[in-house]
Amino acid sequence: MDALSAFIRDHSDGQLFPWARQHEAAVRFSVSVAQVEAAALQQNILPARYQRNRQAISVSDQFTIFSSCVAVIGCGGLGGYVVEELARLGVGRIVVIDPDVFEEHNLNRQLFSTPANLGRAKVEAAAARVREINPAVTLAPIQKAFSIDNGAELLNGCQIVVDALDSIQVRLELAEICSTMNIPLVHGAIAGWFGHVTTQFPGDTTLQTIYRSWKGGKGVEQTLGNPSFTPAVVASIEVAEVCKLLLGQGNPLRGRQLIIDLLSMEIQVIDLHEEIVTVASEF
Questions:
Q1: Per-residue pLDDT tens for 219-231?
Q2: What does the pLDDT read at residue 116?
Q3: How far is residue 114's CA from residue 133's CA, in Å, rounded to a whole number?
Q4: Which ranges of the chain have pLDDT less than 50?
Q5: What is the pLDDT of residue 1?
Q6: Which of 30, 106, 195, 266 could form a disulfide with 110 if both were Cys (CB 3.0 to 4.6 A apart)?
Q7: What is the CATH number assigned to the segment(s) 68-282?
């Protein structure tokens, strides 16, 4: 590794390490691109792909992000955008859990859905996409349905979980498991022009509060559907929450629900400690 570190130092350009040299180092020293990235960041040298992060995320912060493991439950409308943005952010390990394959009705909004991918496992397509856009990121594809029975096993080793599910029942089970395992949960939901985001910390009952009026069924997404833009907006806010949690910066949406109305172009933040009933509680 001393030779690798010397190569990185000798071939960096203004504290930036270009992708071509990163790839060359991996081949020359028979190591993974991820190992090269780690070696660069440990020397306070930034892989050049992240240079536009520098004004918001320091090199040491970038190493923290690279050293992290985030689970994404669901790889459809929300999950695809979440995975894409986490990979571009530089999260070192992403665990993606989804049992489904792409169907034609996914084509209007799901990022990894293409005519060529119809019938392909969503997690498999996600893994291929991440290898293409950021080979330093490891994506673990798990083609299983998340449940109360296997949740603890699937989330073992993950620091943060992102909810990209479409089932309220499974979301509540996920929230319970995350609380038991002491893992923060970033929750997002979408329906038509509307969406919401919140972050549940271990010991909180955030999702139980949001869905306290739920009586069964999947929620209004089944009625309102989802256009292409809603999952992109909500997923981006979820990823911002993940980034803040990993770095211990900013003010996460703990105990608060951010509600988005793209039709009226209004955003509202509700204090969940107050007993306010909104249409978002039906998502």
A1: 666 677 789 999 9
A2: 97
A3: 17
A4: 275-283
A5: 66
A6: 106
A7: 3.40.50.720
